[in-house]
Amino acid sequence: MALLAASLAYFYRKGDGELPVYTTAISRMVDGAEIYRTSDNKAFTYPPFAAIPFLPFLALPPELHNTLWYVVNLGVFFYVFRQLTGLVQRWLPGEQNLRLRRLFWACLLLLVARHISSVFESKANDIIMLLLMFEAARLATLNRFSSVGILAGIGAAFKATPWLFFPILIWQRRFIAAAILFAAAMTAHLVPDIIFPRHDDNSWTFSWYTTFLSRVRVDTPVDAEGAWSAWNLLNQSLTATLYRLSTPFDATLVDPNNVNLWTLKDSGLSILNISAQLCVLLLLVLATQHRETTELRRFGQAGAVLCAMLLLSPMSSKSHFGVLIVPFSFCVIELVRDPRRLVIGIHLALIFMLGTLTSKGIIGKELGNIVLAYGSITWLTLLTLTGSLYLLRRPPAPSEIQHSLQ
Fold first, then answer.
1. How far out from the chain centre does Cα 114 lie?
2. How many domains, in total, are found in the chain?
3. 341-371 b/e (C-beta count within 10 Å ≥ 16 → b)
4. Residue 224 per-residue DSSP state
5. CB atoms near residue 254 (< 10 Å)
6. Looking at the DSSP assignment, which residues form a beta bridge with residue 228?
7. Region 80-91 average pLDDT
8. Of 276, 154, 147, which is closest to residue 221 (Cα–Cα)?
9. Residues 343-374 pLDDT 10s
10. CA–CA separation, 267 vs 86, rounded Å?
11. Could you report how far apart the first and last alpha carbons of the chain are, in Å?
């Protein structure tokens, strides 16, 4: 009860956050009015389907919107941790592993608390992505890849980056799941046009593409008036971090910090960004190479996809990184089962230092912003991906194989 009271106070103290962006979008969509407006103070930049889950908010007065969203956040957190508890009990079964399960939860909460709290305080739609992506990873452990395709497809229509599951499913020769993902995404994209047609008879998806998506480039951070700026310390995607490190100090920026380590422009910066993204894709291909593997490793493979999604996205804000609970769980469960794994122990220690120990509540807002500008969350996500790859390329323990057969 004390935790609930504290969380409620914390939630309301953070104001409305991103919630009005979504409620405004669905209100305009119902009226058939344009939802993609660069003139807005905070523009709605997501695919049109991302507005649909907020339809129930229109039945409530605005002063109750935060209350409903608090209940949704709390419900998703409870569900995710309850399901994760079941997974941990399967992977560390019996009374003899009680100490290891407690150690797992202690380590996991130290690593993930900052990212979960960011989801909670921003009031962004990342709580929905957390639910979809966690469920996709959980169902992958059960070999239910048709359901994984449905969830990833809905996620792709919700925020685009889960499309990365599509080539990975093909790479693993799960062609039916890939086809289901494609069909689910296309269907979800059509739903807003069918239910709430625009006044001008255009397509919501086409409007989204022309207003925002067409401005996205793979070799440089996206810069769109009213939505994104190229130099943005809250954007922890790979291209955004490399851009900040490569750009000379500019005192006119909203949050200026001199984090320039080298200077690259135009073709030089493009080559660096494309090379870095290709390296991430190579790591992901190596991590997901084996199709026939144990359920824990299928969970780890899904976590590797989530790491790559965050790194390759044109915009990965702090609140997007709550999905790291999946790869964190995979790495921690492997560590507590075999604490002699020095490599993964070093990875997790570095992740703890870059993540938890650099939160503004510990080091202060000024230093916290500087560390963010250097890309602390970008680098801990990359460490999580390389740590997952290390574990996925190692031969599975005999006990893990036996449990998977059972």
1. 14
2. 1
3. beebeebbeebbebbbebbeeeeeeeebbbb
4. B
5. 8
6. 224
7. 96
8. 276
9. 999 999 999 999 999 998 899 999 999 999 99
10. 50
11. 39
